Amino acid sequence: DEDLRDNGQEFRGRHYYNVYQHSISEEAYEYWLKINQVTVQTGSIFDAPAAGVPGNAYNIDDPQEVVLGFFEVSNVDTVRTFILPGDIPPGTIPDFCPNINSWSQYLGYVQVFQMLPKEECCFCGTLPGDHIVKPDWF
After folding, report:
1. pLDDT tops 60 at residue 48
2. DSSP assignment of the chain, as one string?
């Protein structure tokens, strides 16, 4: 993923994920597949469809009336997992902030100050795309 390669600093430590899996019926899958096919040709899901896709909704007083829409109930399964730095293959995340293990190898102030970590190595919030989002389970 390009975003991960550009700004993957959040994976340098333990990272927590919620994975939500929604189950749907075969009928619902077919309906949403048809909706996708119509919207791909004409715009987005929020645009007026080029053609009506019949669903499972109908007018009980007038069954002949064309009603668009699909009523469904979905089961949701949640998996919570941690990803540790060791779970990410080496080389996937660029090394923006190399470790400086020994200051004694550098002589003089000029060399030491040139080797100080960049601001984003100390304050991850300065990296592009960084944000703090409160998890929904918090």
Report:
1. yes
2. -HHHHHS-GGGGS-EEEEEEEEE--HHHHHHHHHHHHHHHHHS-TTSPPSS--B-S---SS-TTS--B------EEEEEEEEE-GGGSPTTSS--SS-----GGGS-SHHHHHHTSPPHHHH-GGGSTT------TT-
